Amino acid sequence: MIRIFQKIRKEIIGQGPTARYLLYAIGEILLVVIGILIALQVDNWNEERKEQREITRLLLDIEQDLLLNYELADQALDFYRMQDSIVRRIARNTLTKKDYENSSRLTYLVSNWEYYLPAEKNINQIVESEKRVPAKYKPIIEGLKRVQSFSAVLDDAWSNLDENIGENTKFITSFSWFVKNDSLSNAKRQEFFLKDEEYHTTAFRYWVATQNYFDKITRYRAQTMATLATLKQHKDNFSLDEIQGLFLKVGMVPFEAYPCGVAKSQLKPLKALRSSELYANLTQNALHFELSNNKGQGVTKFTIPPNTFSTIPGNEYFGLEGDNTTLVRVSDEEGNCIGTYGAFENGFLLISEKDAP
């Protein structure tokens, strides 16, 4: 292109002085304009490459954040699982004075807590910049938006638990024996925790709040892995086997399969606590899911679009002795049963083309 304009310029110089200089000036201006346009285009290309490198870096950071958030969730859930076991012993009157002598954890039961704080800075940053993200990564952005929405629900559950803990702390610290360590105070404290009905009611209310928080953490954890699977699928072209391997590696458990016509008497109680799990439809058609428990309670129906990872809320609240088992019937768009499955806590269900009738 530059050589062409140089040739034209030489031809212009061979013409008359005025026309020659006028055309020469125009040619010089055109050369400058073209040079500027080329420079701008190069800058745009460099900026686009810089943005893509930044997005790639963010996705790598988010991948690590999602794995970290999964691990942090497990730690918090272990704590609340222990709290659940203690409240159940209170309900069954199986705690003894010796138990309280050997464990300070029992003394502080209703005022104890574990706050789950996932890493979300990178998640928020890429969602805010979603217009710059390539179209092929849009499913990842949608998954991250669901993580954000579950985070808000998680915060609400924590606020309720935090308020409950504050009330409980005010209640138990109103007794002088609670903050003393002499033999008489210790005896009064143990007698109170073992027999006082108001304290037992306080413990049960605390259990309700902690179980709600437990369920919301499990839902956030499940969405974390659903989004990580979506990321690996669209960024790294993960296959079904690789996705399943990823879930197994972090300790997730596949649902237990039953025949479509399984009788209620054959079903196992696979979950002790209310929790949420991960569901995936990796077929080319929408699938319908119907959830219940062993007693047929808490029925929930939902549809998952093709090639989508999803989570739903755990079973409804059924109390300390309730049935928290999640039983899943999966059917196609014509209502044909694909399978019946029992969910484990931290479980996953992947339905692929090989499962479809």
In short, what is this structure?
By secondary structure, this protein is α+β, with helices and mostly antiparallel strands. 57% of the residues lie in helices and 12% in strands.
Rg, Å, rounded: 31 Å
Tally of separate helices = 9
Q: In which range does the helix fraction lie?
A: 55-70%
Task: Please give the largest β-sheet.
Answer: 5 strands, antiparallel
What does this protein look like?
Helices cover 57% and strands 12% of the residues. It has 357 residues and is α+β, with helices and mostly antiparallel strands. The chain folds into two domains: 1-238, no CATH class; 252-357, von Hippel-Lindau disease tumour suppressor,  beta domain (Immunoglobulin-like, Sandwich). The chain has a five-stranded antiparallel beta sheet, with no helix packed on it. A hairpin with a 7-residue loop joins β4 and β5. It is flat and about 115 Å long. 27% of the residues are buried.
List the helices and strands and how they pair.
Layout: H1 2-13, H2 17-91, H3 97-102, H4 104-107, H5 121-128, H6 138-172, H7 183-195, H8 197-235, H9 240-249, E1 253-254, E2 256-258, E3 278-282, E4 287-292, E5 300-304, E6 308-311, E7 326-331, E8 337-343, E9 347-352
Parallel strand pairs: 1-9, 3-9
Antiparallel strand pairs: 2-8, 3-6, 4-5, 4-7, 7-8
